[in-house]
Specification:
This protein is of the alpha+beta class. The protein has a single domain, classed as Alpha-Beta Plaits (2-Layer Sandwich). The chain is built from 3 helices and 4 strands. The chain has a 4-stranded antiparallel sheet, covered by helices on one side. A hairpin with a 2-residue loop joins strand 2 and strand 3. It starts with 7 loop residues before the first strand and ends with a helix. 19% of the residues are buried.
C-alpha cells in the first residue's frame, strides 16, 4: 500500500565555516547562522520545522519541500558571509503510514510507560 500524500521527514545539521563577522566574540559559535537558517525554513509554506540542540527536523508533504528547505537554509547562511557550508542530511519518506514527527515522539513516550 502506498499513500497518496505521504509525509517526508528530514533531519539536517548545518555547519557554516569561514564566518565574516568580527563582532562575534566567540568565533566558534554558530548559533547566529543557525537562527537565520531556521527562520528561513519557517517561512516556507506547508513545512513544519523543529529545532533541537544537535540539528533541525523538517516535516513536509514532498521531498521537493524538504530539499527547498535545505536550499533556503544554505542561502541564509551564505547571505551572512559564510565561506563554506557542510550539511548532514537524513531523509525519511514513509509510504505506508500517515504520521507526523509528533506522532513518532508520542509513540516512543507511550512505550516508555510500559512495564
Amino acid at each position: 500500500m502506498t499513500l497518496e500524500n505521504p509525509k517526508v521527514f528530514a533531519e539536517i545539521s548545518i555547519i557554516p565555516l569561514g564566518k565574516n563577522h568580527s563582532t562575534d566574540a566567540m568565533q566558534t559559535s554558530i548559533s547566529r547562522e543557525i537562527a537565520f537558517a531556521f527562520k528561513a525554513i519557517k517561512n516556507i509554506k506547508g513545512v513544519k520545522v523543529n529545532l533541537n540542540a544537535m540539528g533541525t527536523e523538517i516535516e513536509a508533504n514532498s521531498i521537493h519541500d524538504v530539499l527547498r528547505s535545505i536550499e533556503v537554509a544554505h542561502q541564509a547562511i551564505k547571505d551572512l558571509g559564510a565561506k563554506r557550508i557542510i550539511s548532514t542530511i537524513r531523509i525519511d519518506e514513509r509510504l505506508d503510514k500517515k504520521e507526523t514527527l509528533e506522532d513518532r515522539v508520542n509513540s516512543v513516550n507511550e512505550k516508555m510507560t510500559e512495564p
